[in-house]
What we know:
The structure is a homotetramer of 305-residue chains.
Chain A: H1 2-16, E1 20-21, E2 37-42, E3 47-51, E4 57-58, H2 63-75, H3 77-83, H4 97-101, H5 113-122, H6 128-143, E5 149-150, H7 152-161, H8 163-174, H9 182-193, E6 195-197, H10 199-210, H11 225-238, H12 244-250, E7 255-257, E8 262-267, E9 271-276, E10 279-280, H13 287-299
Antiparallel strand pairs in A: 1-10, 2-3, 2-9, 4-6, 5-6, 7-8, 8-9
Helix pairs in contact in A: 1-13, 2-3, 2-5, 2-6, 2-11, 5-8, 5-9, 6-9, 6-10, 7-9
Amino acid sequence: MKDKLESALAKGRKAAATGKVADYIPELGKADPNALAVACCDMDGQITAAGDTETTITIQSISKVVSLALSMIDCGEKKVFSAVGVDPTADPFNSIMRLEMRAPHRPQNPLINAGAIVVLSLLPYRDSLSRYEAVLDLTKKLCSNHSISSNEAVYLSEKATSDRNRSLAYFLRSVGSLEGDIEDILDSYFHQCAIACTVRDLAVMGATLANSGVNPVSGERVLSPRIALTLRALMAICGLYDGSGEFALRVGIPAKSGVGGGIMASAPGNMGLATVGPSLDPKGNSTGGVRVMEILSDQLGLRVL
Amino acid sequence: MKDKLESALAKGRKAAATGKVADYIPELGKADPNALAVACCDMDGQITAAGDTETTITIQSISKVVSLALSMIDCGEKKVFSAVGVDPTADPFNSIMRLEMRAPHRPQNPLINAGAIVVLSLLPYRDSLSRYEAVLDLTKKLCSNHSISSNEAVYLSEKATSDRNRSLAYFLRSVGSLEGDIEDILDSYFHQCAIACTVRDLAVMGATLANSGVNPVSGERVLSPRIALTLRALMAICGLYDGSGEFALRVGIPAKSGVGGGIMASAPGNMGLATVGPSLDPKGNSTGGVRVMEILSDQLGLRVL
Amino acid sequence: MKDKLESALAKGRKAAATGKVADYIPELGKADPNALAVACCDMDGQITAAGDTETTITIQSISKVVSLALSMIDCGEKKVFSAVGVDPTADPFNSIMRLEMRAPHRPQNPLINAGAIVVLSLLPYRDSLSRYEAVLDLTKKLCSNHSISSNEAVYLSEKATSDRNRSLAYFLRSVGSLEGDIEDILDSYFHQCAIACTVRDLAVMGATLANSGVNPVSGERVLSPRIALTLRALMAICGLYDGSGEFALRVGIPAKSGVGGGIMASAPGNMGLATVGPSLDPKGNSTGGVRVMEILSDQLGLRVL
Amino acid sequence: MKDKLESALAKGRKAAATGKVADYIPELGKADPNALAVACCDMDGQITAAGDTETTITIQSISKVVSLALSMIDCGEKKVFSAVGVDPTADPFNSIMRLEMRAPHRPQNPLINAGAIVVLSLLPYRDSLSRYEAVLDLTKKLCSNHSISSNEAVYLSEKATSDRNRSLAYFLRSVGSLEGDIEDILDSYFHQCAIACTVRDLAVMGATLANSGVNPVSGERVLSPRIALTLRALMAICGLYDGSGEFALRVGIPAKSGVGGGIMASAPGNMGLATVGPSLDPKGNSTGGVRVMEILSDQLGLRVL
Lengths: 305, 305, 305, 305
């Protein structure tokens, strides 16, 4: 396995060189564009990793999977999916126009920014910090890594610059699709996006989803099978923003990407697979990561589509 | 003239009964739906008024004309119209989607909310209050009424509830179409929208525009002829939100409406004409006011289109 | 007057050089980009002209004014304006997206392509040719020139290439906003767009609208005052496609342009003014023509806004 | 297996009663709203069926999968996917607005109407009939049923009424995204949509895709493994129009629906599964069919997401 990962990684480095590190959040711009790592975690909890495995990235949009899971646990599926849709979208992750254009004026799905913000607003915690801590706690369990914490510099940088997310949140409240204190909700959102982890953490998270909610490393049931499959299904159709279609063709397994450069994938009943590579394509997905996953999906027979 | 106004007003009351007071800002909902008043001011400064002439309304979007004038004075036409367009729009006054949909991502014109907010952001004042006071001061000169002030309850009500305007402002800053402190800019915006005036004040403002910038009551040159005609031209094509086309057909003179129920019209070289009537049609224009203007435009031969 | 026209024309030639002849219809591409002419017709029917006054162009979208007038005569205002709106639009003349995006799914106004096609479909003639001939006949009366005919090469070229107009027509029928035989209706549309005329013809047409429907050359009442003012009002707000706002500011009189290079303007109670200049700006308006009108509106005091 | 199908079918009948037969094509409106059938075909070519298995429907949009496969065989993947995208869409299957709104102005994917029409236009056949016959021939091989033919009444009904598809085609040609004779291309499209088949045919087609392109009944390799997986991946993300997200959650296997009432699903390496039930939900998917698939996906462990 290690050899296969090394080999895929070597081929992926060329693709990594074609991307560009996200810099719309100043702190993100400091990431190493050449870093590339891959890891997998099988159903026995066996982890194999290759490349720059010590590189730490912020999970960014991958956190949307965690907060969605938490809201399904805390609020129930019904409440969550009356507040956000389950439809794929052809618009960029931070798009606002469809919210005005089409009724009902609610987010298309929970994995675009608007949807993730609405999902967070449903959580029954008393303030921004406790809401964030609940997401962080679930992240730790999904990754079986209790030392995970957030990168405070990225958190503050994102909080200071995120005009588009504020615009989305105020719009959603203006059409009745979101309730609550917007700065408080967004504070949790920026904080959860800044959770820092390694490629191993993401591989374990993917494995937990692949294993129907039982973390194969810790043996703990973290999510119900129903929540695990809901997350996988949504990841399959809208996990890579408006690049989800291409990913389905090239890789063919449920996955979620983040602009920090991570991709967390879940081959059901088989393994979790993750990559870290901060160079992104124009849609916000890791160029090296997608390439490595494409090679491994083929070689390891992971494709489910 | 008085008789003509009275007669038009009597006919207009029926139309007023078909509208509905704006209530998206709670304080606005307290307006009297049956109030109706009309006034004209000729080029000699002679004012004639009829109906509920003591009714005071907040000028709301009519203030966009004043702040646009101020920004043309303070910043120059070139700077203003590189920040906002001069195109009519088919979208509601608070629409956001076109800002994302079409490049350049700047407001279509200065008389929709997004445009008015950008125009305000250009003004070279040190804070929200001084920016507002400059708009208020110009309003006083345009109306030759130095006792004009804002309705603080409406101002605070608007400030507390205006999610959509916040969404617009953050979006504009996210695409580089607006700079500055958003809450500070919006504070001026809410404050200027709450400037309170009577139908006489609005008639004098219209007369000043009709008189190429010289207030016919005070004799003071308040605006250059160039600014006066720019304001009139924009009012003609987009002064009544997405009801501007119908108003051009029915009334045929440059005008600006506000959701407080006022309409300020300007028959060039002829007179200012104003109505007050808080019952609005679905596009946000006074039902009674439009009807009264339609009758008077015909009877007094005011139509320029 | 002749001197003023000559002088304006001389200044306008520079602007003409910045434009580009329309070539999406192959035959249109053959027009002389340097041709420029101007004419006015006063309320006594006195015509003054300057420049390339013998240049013949096809009226293209200016014909929309004629067919709208005809449909108001034949079908009544009520029927026409329940089929098309009277709202300005921010989209290009051949745009389709708003027809799907917003209910009611009818054209915004009768001066964009979709609207003109719907207006034509309302006309009670038995076939394409008789429908076209009725429009041609009204054109002759508006211009008091009985020798006007269409340019058959342009007509056939347009008919052979007009995919976008076919798309609009089929879309309109699919949403119930248009009835009838589409190729038959479009045939009339292409035919009327190809009506050929000179700058003098267009000046007389503008004068007839300015004179409340009485042709000042022939003395014939061609349109009712009500129809004349409706046409002028619509021209004022949407006569120059999505360049109508800029034209209102720069020139300030009702006008209609065509991609053949003509502009027909109407200063109410004052004069008709027309220009011919096939070099167009990106929005489809004659660069030289707009400049000449801007100069003359100022010098002759034509502005009504 | 037969018992499981019967049991799922019994439960599905209740859902079928909530839908409505498509009637925008008059001939489709004649289908029996109560008909419901299900069939599966395993990797050994063993077919099991239950319910109204003799009901014949037209495949409608399921034919898009066949013509896409044919174009990949005839033109190569590269040519096909430079003409259409691989992105999911949030718009209805016959939507046009995004084609104008966003560059490149090409269809989002080959499974919406616009995309299917473009795909057909790429096929190198000399006329409408031979193009249709090539699609029909591939359909026969995918279903291993050489008696399949089209329902000529539905074909002619669709051809006579399909304004929206004509609008899409002309629009696509106007922006350079489609070449060729539009009526000729559309004729093939209407013809292939009218191909008539039973639930058994669709189950075998699904099994061929599930079996990487080898028809398990005939043993013939009909498609390359690469084409089979491309079809499955696209079906997974956009096979049920704008209801694809909900289907991914509820059923979790690649599938394609048609407004004739069919659903053809493909559980990779496992089985083809098909349902027939003409009662549709508002998005155009069989209500009874989706419910039956949901039950069977769960009971048979077919879910791949």
